[in-house]
Amino acid sequence: MRLFLDANVLFSAARSEDSRAHALFLLARAGLCSLVTSPFAIEEARRNTGLKQPERTTALEALLRDAEAGPECSQEQVAWAQSQGLPGKDAPILAAAVLSRCDALVTGDRSHFGSLFGKTVGGVAVLSLRDALERLLADA
Fold first, then answer.
1. d(CA 46, CA 41)
2. Could you write out the DSSP letters of every residue in 32-80?
3. Looking at residue 84, what is its pLDDT?
4. In this structure, are residues 16 and 50 in contact, taking their beta carbons and an 8 Å threshold?
5. SS3 26
6. Crossing angle, helix 129-139 and helix 20-29, to 10 degrees?
7. What is the CA 27 to chain-centroid distance, rounded?
8. Would the pLDDT of 112 be above 90?
């Protein structure tokens, strides 16, 4: 399963090795999934880590080596994602997940992605971290 990780999942994984987000990286290392993100999400995760927990910057960089950085999206792809009800700052995330041909987009952002949770948009299931882990473990 190809999982696209939102910036908040990257931040959470770097923040604590005991987190559910970090568990995704362990499952990927075990060959149960592959992890994808985007330059846009990486930039946001780096910015938030630097501001909120600069001592975890090295951990974030180590984790990023285990995730594929997908391509940037065009303005048309971002506009399409906005038409799905996402604000401008979150539309590039959905657009990149679709462009990267991921099976699922994993995000903890319930305020912006909440109406899409559990739905498949553009071929990508929008999942909470908990739901993504449950699907991975059920498939294992």
1. 9
2. S-EEEE-HHHHHHHHHHHHHH-GGGHHHHHHHHTTSEE-PPPPHHHHHH
3. 93
4. no
5. helix
6. 30
7. 15
8. no
Domains of the chain in sequence order:
2-139 (3.40.50.1010)
Q: Could you tell me the CA-to-CA distances from 77 to 8, 36, 47, 100 in Å, in that order?
A: 21, 18, 24, 12
Average pLDDT over residues 119-127: 97
Please state whether the predicted TM-score (pTM) of the whole model is above 0.85: yes
The two three-digit tokens of residue 2, written as one number: 């190809």
Question: In the block, which residue shows the tokens 């990149």?
Answer: 96
Tell the burial category of 18 from Cβ atoms under 10 Å away from its Cβ (0-12, 13-18, 19+).
exposed
Residue 44: both structure tokens together = 């946001």
Please tell me the distance from the alpha carbon of residue 31 to that of residue 5, in angstroms, as a whole number. Answer: 17
Do the beta carbons of residue 90 and residue 40 sit within 8 Å? no
DSSP string across 67-135: SEE-PPPPHHHHHHHHTTT--TTTHHHHHHHHHTT-SEEE---HHHHGGGTT-EETTEEEE-HHHHHHH
Residue found under tokens 């190809």? 2
Instruction: Write out pLDDT tens, residues 7-22.
Output: 999 999 999 999 999 9
Q: What is the pLDDT of residues 96-111, one digit of tens each?
A: 999 999 999 999 998 8
